[in-house]
Design a protein that fits this description.
The complex is a heterodimer.
Chain A (H helix, E strand, L loop, with lengths): L4 H20 L8 H16 L5 E2 L6 E2 L5 H9 L3 H27 L2 H12 L2 H7 L6 H16 L4 H13 L7 H17 L6 H21 L1 H7 L10 H7 L5 H8 L1 H16 L3 H18 L5 H28 L7 H25 L5 H13 L6 E2 L5 H8 L15 H13 L3 H10 L4 E3 L2 H7 L12 E5 L2 E4 L2
Parallel strand pairs in A: 3-4
Antiparallel strand pairs in A: 1-2, 4-6, 5-6
Chain B lengths: L1 H25 L10 H13 L5 E2 L6 E2 L5 H12 L3 H23 L4 H12 L2 H8 L7 H13 L3 H10 L8 H17 L3 H26 L13 H5 L11 H14 L7 H16 L4 H21 L5 H27 L5 H11 L5 E3 L5 H6 L4 E2 L11 H13 L3 H11 L1 E7 H7 L7 H8 L4 E6 L3 E6 L2
Parallel strand pairs in B: 3-4, 3-5
Antiparallel strand pairs in B: 1-2, 5-7, 6-7
Helix pairs in contact in B: 1-4, 1-5, 1-6, 1-15, 2-3, 4-5, 4-6, 4-7, 5-14, 7-8, 9-10, 9-13, 12-14, 12-15, 13-14, 18-19
The chains are: A mainly alpha, B mainly alpha.
């Protein structure tokens, strides 16, 4: 029995959904602090219909510069957290379908496109970034790929209109839209060096999109640009966290997070594509160059960079698979094609699905923290300031609705270095005087100290605690009383 | 019929100019003038009227009267006629500038469409709105330079001579205006082979500059070079969209590219424009307010670019339309931003209230950030330690260094020494000083001392924007 392509695609989608829903609904909370930042933006839109621009809780008062189109969409279509979880999962399905369409366009082979769609369903780094989380990448990556799809089909009027609309939408979604415009820039350069003639209407569209995205980003981040000048590109990340955010390239880490198959097949695909001057592959190579460029200059954090890298490599893999498939057809092994297909599917399952599973089960679980933050919301004064690690800052503001000292919204925050350092001091110092100085500087009312904090700061207890100044009001909460 | 149409067009342009130039004042919550410049020019014009031109005994505690007198002088003339002259004059000169600009383009045989479009782009351009929405050092200099230029373009010999004679007065607005005018006249004269006339202009300017600056040089020597860097990046000052009050719109730059692309078709025929553009860009990089002159040329080139954009053949009509709409909205957006920024420019009502409280106190030296210095002189009528008029300011760099030390020290002895040195009686702190202009933290430097040495500092007045402290040593 031969299955239809669409049926296989539906099966792949079903497999992806089962995998994701299993992990998503095995935990009622989200698996990242970042999710709670997005949740606050969504809730604010639901309540006030306006984007959150000034946040009284983050940094005990901080301006938020963040394009909130994604949050508006989620606010419209989600009535509770379960619906949010379903929608963010469905976005990954959109990614699988778009990758399928691009691969089909590149190779003109539905079977190859199916293999590539299967590869996309289980990317370890994608699982780590998006699974059971509200992640902007779950939205922006399908959007960027859809824009690429529109660009390679630009002669079609529908795709042309779609390209123009997406040129407006991309910068209103996330600053990683810069990857797209950098790709366009490298594409023009590569096409010129390879003497590929780009039609005039395509040049016009690229020109329009390039400047529009640049302009909208500039207008959105104007205030941050004014505050930081050109160093805005490093997003005001505190220097002590900088290396963590923009780690140096570690080839083994990249292989693990991307998957060995996309790296080998994608690299070969780029090689073949450039050799035969394939327009779509040149576009993909440009996208890869753009990501490499941003990672090497530490303008994008490694995790996001590798995520984009793996997607583009998977797309480039389609050409290798197509080449192999065509080559096989003209050899004596053509009669074993089905076996080859089965071996390839098994390879995908072993080399991508198993690592993805391990990544999924290793995702952090914040249930204990969320329980405590819920308790804080119900049992502390509304204007309290709570000391929590920076990595839990968003969770605190979203769940406990209390002020934090710092979180990862660095862009317009003041004294990020000093605040991060002060949090470290408050958790690690043995000196009560030093701790009280920090506590008074930020008017801290409560200190959160649980197993996560112990592990994070490598301490067993807060060394300066005494009964005169600190009262244990819950097993992981201390009230400042002096 | 055509005459009537162009007449109506000019009237409409004038009405639009008046409305746009009035907007910053109409939208303003504050009852004060926009920025410090009108306050400064009004105070100097009052000193001129009272013939107190030897010493300014409020700025930098006391300083020689080394100010440029053209703007305050004209203001004092009009002030005699009407007290509201300071509000009316800039708008009036804005209209005159627009008309002069329009006729200069006509004289240069620029087509009516491009002329109209240039005028529209000029009216909505941030530098134009800045220059003519409040009285400042460019409000008269720009129309004067345009008037001289228009006369210089005439065939009539008498008008030409008159224009050359009038160039004598350009340095009275400042040597920078004179240098820019000289270079632009040089470019034009070389192109039109009128170098002999330029030599007269040069001679008159040298005489005029000598008359103005030689007495200063003889009496006070060379002015001190500013050694401290203002914490503002050049590109921020040049673009209104980056927060500058007088910078050009970045959307004009896009149109400029189209305009230059169109001109380049005739290669070196327009070499004069390229040179003028280069000179004005360089002078804007060196002295950011030159962007106000650059804006005049940009308005024409942007209009040219816009027309070229509309006429050019695009394979995709949809993208062409989108680009035109985008640029048009962008230009309007830049105007909106600058009108808003001007409407919110200092001093606010709270700052004025604080300064009025200060005015009621006995005379004494007031310490604050130098950007508040002019307000302290003009509204509170008190002496400041420092203000933003650096030219020939006494011991400029030393005063700046001392101010910085006083702002950031937590050592009472160090603060006491500086307070005694300048005989500081009051400390005037504004919200923006505490929000990054001076301090980053609540207990930084002098703020720590003010709150801890309670016997030596007493808070006299406070509101949302201002803190006024009395020093007792």
């Amino acid at each position: 029995m031969k299955l239809k392509t669409s049926t296989i695609l539906v099966l792949i989608i079903a497999l992806t959904l089962i995998f994701r829903f299993y992990f998503t609904f095995s935990n009622e909370n989200f698996n990242s602090d970042e999710s709670y930042f997005h949740l606050r933006l969504i809730d604010n839109i639901k309540e006030n219909l306006t984007p959150l621009i000034k946040d009284d809780l983050s940094y005990s008062g901080n301006k938020i510069i963040y394009p909130q189109l994604f949050h508006y969409l989620l606010a419209i279509f989600s009535f509770n957290n379960i619906l949010i979880k379903i929608i963010t999962t469905l976005l990954v399905i959109a990614l699988v379908i778009i990758v399928y369409l691009i691969a089909k366009k590149i190779t003109n082979d539905k079977n190859v496109a199916l293999f590539v769609a299967l590869l996309t369903s289980f990317i370890p780094i994608e699982i780590r970034t998006n699974l059971n989380q509200i992640s902007i990448y779950a939205f922006i990556i399908p959007l960027i790929l859809l824009t690429f799809l529109a660009l390679i089909n630009l002669d079609n009027k529908k795709y042309f209109n779609l390209f123009l609309i997406l040129s407006f939408v991309l910068p209103l979604t996330h600053p990683t839209s810069f990857i797209f415009i950098l790709s366009l820039l490298f594409y023009i350069i590569l096409a010129n060096t390879e003497s590929i003639n780009i039609p005039r209407f395509k040049k016009e569209a690229i020109f329009f999109s390039f400047f529009l995205i640049l302009l909208i980003n500039f207008l959105i981040y104007r205030e941050a640009f004014l505050q930081h000048g050109l160093s805005i590109i490093w997003q005001n990340v505190p220097s002590i966290l900088f290396n963590e955010y923009f780690k140096d390239l570690n080839i083994l880490e990249i292989i693990y997070l991307t998957g060995i198959l996309p790296i080998i097949l994608g690299s070969l695909g780029i090689f073949f594509g450039l050799k035969q001057k394939n327009d779509s592959i040149i576009l993909l190579s440009s996208a890869l160059l753009a990501v490499f460029f941003l990672i090497s200059l530490k303008l994008i954090n490694l995790s996001a960079g590798v995520l984009f890298l793996s997607i583009f490599l998977i797309l480039a893999s389609s050409l290798t698979i197509a080449k192999f498939s065509k080559y096989l057809a003209i050899t004596k092994f053509s009669k074993y094609k089905t076996y080859f297909n089965i071996i390839f599917i098994l390879l995908i399952l072993i080399l991508t699905t198993i690592p993805s599973y391990f990544v999924a089960i290793s995702l952090p679980n914040y249930n204990a923290e969320i329980e405590t933050f819920t308790w804080i919301k119900e049992n502390t004064e509304r204007d309290s300031v709570i000391l929590v690690p920076l990595e839990l800052g968003n969770m605190l503001t979203a769940i406990a609705e209390r002020k934090n000292i710092a979180d990862n919204n660095f862009l317009l925050a003041r004294n990020t270095d000093e605040r991060t350092n002060d949090i470290n001091i408050a958790y690690q110092t043995f000196s009560k005087i030093e701790a009280l100085e920090v506590i008074r500087r930020y008017n801290i009312n409560y200190i959160f100290f649980n197993d996560y904090v112990k592990q994070r700061y490598k301490v067993d207890r807060l060394l300066y605690l005494d009964e005169k100044c600190f009262e244990e009001i819950k097993n992981d909460i201390y009230k400042v009383i002096c | 019929m055509i005459f009537t149409k162009s007449y109506v067009r000019v009237i409409l342009l004038i009405i639009a100019t008046v409305i746009i130039l009035l907007l910053p004042t109409l939208l303003r919550d504050s009852s004060g003038y926009i920025t410090e410049e009108p306050y400064f020019l009004e105070r100097i014009s009052n000193l001129l009227r009272d013939k107190n031109t030897e010493i300014d005994n409020l700025s930098y505690i006391e300083r020689p009267f080394t100010y440029l007198l053209a703007q305050p002088f004209i203001l004092s003339l009009f002030n005699n006629l009407n007290e509201k002259a300071i509000l009316i004059l800039p708008i009036l000169f804005g209209i005159i500038s627009l008309i002069l600009f329009y006729f200069i383009l006509k004289k240069l045989n620029i087509s009516q469409n491009i002329r109209d479009l240039s005028a529209i782009i000029l009216i909505i351009s941030p530098p134009f709105i800045y220059t003519f929405s409040h009285y400042n050092s460019f409000s008269i200099a720009v129309p004067f330079l345009l008037f001289v230029s228009l006369l210089f373009l005439q065939e009539n010999k008498f008008l030409k001579i008159l224009s050359i004679l009038l160039t004598f007065f350009i340095p009275f607005f400042g040597y920078r205006h004179s240098f820019i005018a000289l270079i632009l006249f040089l470019i034009y004269c070389i192109k039109e082979r009128r170098t002999k006339e330029f030599s007269w202009i040069l001679l008159l300017n040298i005489i005029s500059l000598s008359l103005i600056y030689l007495p200063y040089l003889v009496k006070h020597g060379l002015p001190e070079v500013v050694k401290f860097r203002e914490n503002i990046l050049i590109y921020q000052a040049l673009f209104s969209d980056l927060g500058s009050l007088f910078g050009v719109s970045i959307f004009v730059i896009f149109l400029l590219v189209f305009g230059l692309n169109h001109l380049w078709k005739s290669k070196y025929k327009h070499i004069g424009i390229y040179l003028a553009l280069t000179v004005l860009i360089i002078s804007s990089l060196l002295f950011s307010k030159s962007v106000i002159y650059l804006n005049l040329l940009l308005s024409y080139l942007a209009a040219l670019g816009f027309t070229h954009l509309l006429k050019s053949n695009w394979e995709s009509l949809k993208i062409k339309k989108l680009v035109v709409w985008l640029l048009s909205i962008g230009l309007i957006f830049s105007s909106y931003v600058v009108i808003n920024n001007l409407a919110n420019a200092p001093p606010s009502n709270e700052i004025i209230d604080g300064l009025e409280k200060l005015k009621a106190l006995e005379q004494g030296v007031v310490f604050s950030h130098y950007t508040n210095g002019v307000f302290i002189n003009a509204i509170a009528e008190k002496k400041n330690v420092m203000d933003s008029n650096f030219f020939y300011a006494p011991k400029l760099n030393e005063v700046y260094q001392d101010s910085q030390t006083l702002f950031y020290t937590r050592n009472f002895e160090v603060a006491q020494e500086i307070i005694k040195k300048y005989n500081i009686k009051y400390i005037f702190i504004t919200k923006n000083m505490k929000a990054g202009l001076v301090w980053e933290k609540e207990d930084q430097g002098l703020l720590f001392l003010l709150n801890s040495a309670k016997d030596n500092f007493k808070k006299l007045y406070t509101n949302n924007e201002v803190e006024l402290w009395r020093v007792r040593l």
